[in-house]
Amino acid sequence: MEKKIISVINQKGGVGKTTTVINLAAGLSMKGKKVLVIDLDPQGNATTGLGLSNNISSDRTIYNVLNGNKKIFEVIKQTNFENLDIISSNVDLSGLEVETAGESRRAFKLKDELALILNDSRASYDYIIIDCPPSLSLLTIMALVASEALVVPLQTEFFALEGLTQLMKTIERIKSNLNPSLEIRGILLTMYDKRNKLSGQVEIEARNYFKEKVYLTSVPRNVRLSEAPSHGVPVLLYDKVCPGSKAYFKFTQEFLEQDKKVESAA
Ligand SMILES: Nc1ncnc2c1ncn2[C@@H]1O[C@H](COP(=O)(O)OP(=O)(O)O)[C@@H](O)[C@H]1O
Ligand SMILES: [Mg+2]
User: Fold this and answer.
1) Three-class SS of residue 83?
2) Domains detected in the chain
3) Successive 10-residue mean pLDDT values, the chain, 266 residues
């Protein structure tokens, strides 16, 4: 069966998680796939990057689902983009860990809520893509428990691989305790600068170590990618032909090919 629930994860901030979520989601939706993005970062960057508000007046957020105040179907919002819905986030989410400290099953809350979506014919999503916060906190654990597969953006800079060791340990721990079928779908090299020798070195090391888990596509450093979010539009729509867009279109294609392979092997 196709893996539908995908987290984009790396406990380091600023490595391209949110940019990848927004543009993978946009790319898939442009291919006719129905996509739900879940913004699981209190910063709400995926929310604003997809044109919605992350101000605190809204109670239709993932926070209110995870604390039990709202049903998940009540908080799904449409974006301005076809086939692309979102459950938004705001800074309220940063209080969840402390507020739910007494609840024993809280790590499963997101998984349980997503099961409601998967089992309901009203919401026929092809993919649910979760934007993780830059930490290994409760929110990230919830994402790891709920996910079927992971996409790990890896910024091609010094120390990038060292940060991955801790993430891999956490993933292994979750696999052996809480979610045995969790798998790493792929590692995406981001902010690649071909004029910088270091980018090439990190790429070689990553491919040596993680082999075919590293996507063939790498995302170049491209200023258009950093401009698009302030317009609330995926770069794929903001500037279709810039190098960043070309890379994310290519990545979307590579991502879809993975499901084709799984289907033909089944
Ligand atoms: N390939 C890229 N080239 C240039 N800027 C990028 C690229 N990817 C992301 N950015 C910018 O870098 C910053 C961090 O990226 P972001 O996707 O928010 O990372 P994270 O979600 O991991 O913290 C943002 O301002 C974003 O617009
Ligand atoms: Mg982010």
Assistant:
1) coil
2) 5-265 (3.40.50.300)
3) 88 97 98 98 98 92 97 96 98 95 94 94 91 96 98 92 91 96 97 94 95 98 97 96 98 96 73
